[in-house]
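Journal club prep — side note

Before the paper discussion, L.F. wants everyone to see what a predicted structure for a comparable chain looks like in token form. Sequence:
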Amino acid sequence: MTVSEDLPQNLPKPIDDGKADHLTGMSLPDLSLLLSSGKKLNISKLINCVLFIFPKAGSSLEDPIDFEIWDAIPGARGCTPQSCAYRDLNNEFSKYGFDIFGLSVQKPEVLKEVQERNHIPFDLISDSDLELTGELSLPTFMFKSRELIKRITLIIKNGKIKKVFYPVFPSDKDATTTLNYIIEHHTK
């Protein structure tokens, strides 16, 4: 399988604005969110997982993205390459006892289309009402009057955030960086 979206080489790099500094050590809230599979998942029940959070994947179920504007936003571009990198390393994460979930503010039906089109073997979580975003005070930005979550990756152990990667750039290297951290720290 190949990644269907190539990242331009001149994308602006996001800066660490400190808006994720508070997350390490936080417990996940008792909150159920819809998955791309149509099921619900209580976020507080996550044991060993990687939760990669992305702004917005392109989908035929939503208005097309104006890439000239999108590419000018530091850290916005690259949701498909990020998701596909996790897809490609999913078995490696499993060897270390970690599940993978992606999360976006997009509706479950949109995330299902993204999941199916890109052959992603794990569920994508919809935070379309910004419930988890609000509970954790996740960093966000506005795009065409819509609040989106900035790209961030969380390593979760027993319902708590153990490690935070923020900002994530480039997005297509996130899965490798996260897996290397897990291997290096024997985070089982």
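L.F.'s comment for the group: The first helix runs from residue 67 to 71. Keep this in mind when we get to the figures.
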